[in-house]
Amino acid sequence: MSEAGIYGVDMYRIVTFNANGIRSAADKGFFRWFAEQNADCLCVQELKAHEADIPAALRELPGYYGYFHCAEKKGYSGCGLWTKVKPLAVRTGFGVEEFDREGRYVEADFGHLVVISCYFPSGSSSEERQAAKFRFLDVFLPHLEALRASGKEIVLCGDVNIAHKEIDLKNWKGNLKNSGFLPEERQWLTQLFEGDRWVDVFRKLDPRPERYTWWSQRGQARAKNVGWRIDYQIATPGLAARAKATDIYAAEKFSDHAPLTVDYDLGDSHHGA
Prior knowledge:
By secondary structure, this protein is of the alpha+beta class.
């Protein structure tokens, strides 16, 4: 196997999941479920814990190397990335202080493959947070484009807090003026995906409606499947072409989000030994 031992594996499985508190999700059985998935990489958002407060059994998940980017503020945001193969390099934060303080970005570089766990800001709580979300989008796009220009295959995993198209949320008409489905937010994703620069991997593999990853805690949203698809694996075209299967696991409730899994066939890769 080449590089950091990634290429050459027949199937490389990535799970991404917004835990809405890693300790809470663990108590609800997430890591029991995850242990059965035989995943190569796990990206988690909204840890809501400082690294020292993450139980050692989760921080040092058996068989995995774990890396974390936690917010300065207690009980807020935070991203984690666990991988079976040790990366060649790990980066936490993407170089913009306002957002790096909030613990939103872990990047694992395996050589020709880069996996990112990222938590985009939510703008739903106030106008100020929506303004921060727009600032994030403005600075994050050039960062992604610079990464893509490196020529590596990249997959961005995480809670983007934006539903792209009408198919991606149940009540699209009622949310046209709400954070997460604003025209400017949707256009940001359209811009990202146009010209075959980046690919929405789940949607490439699964064109069906009513496939959601998040449900409001209010009312019976989850029971009635009144949801949004706001969690993504977004990949460069070469890697997206290797995506073979995907699933959203909503049978158990580990948080207000559901884990999203994608399998990539990295066998017989053209990347050098």
